[in-house]
Amino acid sequence: MSRPQEPQRPFFHFGNPFRSPKGSQLPPRLLSLLNAFEATLSERLQRLVPKDKNDILSLSWMKLAMESISEVHCDIKNLITELELPVTDWDEKWIDVYLDISVKLLDISIAFNSELTRLNQGHLLLQCVLHKLESNSSDQFLRACSSVDSWRQHVRSKNPRVETCRPILDKLVESLNLPKVKNSAKGKVLMRAMYGAKVVTTYICSVFAAAFSGSTRNLLDLSVPTTLPWAQVFSDVQTTVNTEIRNIFSCGEFTVLRELHAVDACSKKLYPFLQDGVGPAEGESFKNSVSGLKNTAEELSQGLDNLSKVVDGFFKIVLTGRDALLCNLRAGCAVPKSVTGRNIDVLQGESCM
């Protein structure tokens, strides 16, 4: 059971950072681009509002969430093209923001895929259990019992990579305070769109980190300006998902992953048969328990595979975007001092795609 946490502080302490000064209305074309981006962002968030609490946190919901932030990052890429704002015209601070965020997202994606791989490795132990149960030998039952114990221990163990997620999340939260944009209407549109992308990405990453770590310590409560058109639906998603996650952990459950919990429940039903044997009147119950374990184990393994592919896809989207930015900087000979210092290894190691 996780320790109670202090609520997250709002990130905007001095009013709405997007309030336009008098006389600084965006040109109609730029306003249309911004409105279209934020309307699409609202639609993507609406898809994440769970229809039923049992959707939280199913692997299918997590897959949809990761697909959604992948799409948001592609939307940002398209917006940059539509704004006709080449990287060589970017303010140095904008470049810093993009590079800092991208490297953190790459790190956290690696941590997530590491945990998905680790959890799926447990499927071999479950397959071993099911194989041993094809025999009526008491010796095989005892071995199956040992395999169940090993699986339980495996899925409850901690992954060191996931334990590093909190510092990454803290840095992502810090990045929500965007640099001021002066004398660039296109820059204002880009920064506001990037703010929306960063809020949604940071929050979804915190949900994944909480689910994989088995602790609400990694779960964020983000405050956004209520004037933003996507603020209400974001609040709906965050409130619904966070409430259910905290409720599950407060009951002492070791995981909020629905499919993993289902396999664990089936293993508990099967366990007495493995220890004590199957009595004359228990044959049907035993068969149902084995069938239940087989079905839920397959569903878990398939769900983990599917989610892993989507996380890997998000990693590639972030990496491609970062690589393209660095290539354009090289081509334009406009590499800022902050990049040549902190990211010199990246500049030397990444190639244009």
From TrEMBL:
List the residue ranges of the region (Disordered).
1-20
Q: What keyword terms does UniProt attach to this protein?
A: Membrane, Transmembrane, Transmembrane helix
Under Pfam families, the record lists: ROH1-like
Keyword Nucleotide-binding set for record: no
According to its UniProt record, where is this protein located? Membrane
Give the InterPro entries listed for this entry.
Answer: ROH1-like
Query: Looking at the keywords, is Cytoplasm present?
Result: no
Annotated membrane topology: Single-pass membrane protein
- Major location, coarse class? membrane
What is stated as this protein's family in its record? Belongs to the ROH1 family.
Checking PANTHER family in the record gives: BPS1-LIKE PROTEIN
What is the name of this protein? Protein BPS1, chloroplastic
